[in-house]
Amino acid sequence: MTIRTHTPNVLADPPISVRAKLAAAWTSFMFLYIYVDFFNLYKPGVVDGILNGLVWRFDVSPTLLTVMLASVAIPALMVMLSMTLPARVNRATNLIVASLYIPYSVFNAAGATWEWAFFYGLSIGMEVLLLAFILRSAWTWPRTHHDAADVATADRLRQDLRQ
Description:
2% strand, flat
């Protein structure tokens, strides 16, 4: 007599590379960043201000639009850079850019009224959480450990290749 046991199918959960995590986080950040700006257009008076040549309290100008483009282009480029830069440069770049974007994201609440506090709190909160994830992922980037034998072997291989 055989006893049937029910064993559930366990899903495979392969590890995700740090590069993929960073690219995914920057992609999520970009979607959120763009949609927050898009939904901001629904606030009363925003579109009228833009049509009158004002964004927030700034005159619409080539300089303003260039700064705005750069502020969106940098995180967009970070998606690609997170997948392609060498590990050491990648880690440093992610740490620097994410650190700079935290105060930049918080600045979006400047001049907001309490009526819009939940909108800005939720949007900025999610942006900062994504940036914190990026910082943590880059900061804890796994390192490889080489012992003396590995270094000696690598040195011998380099010398053999030179000859």
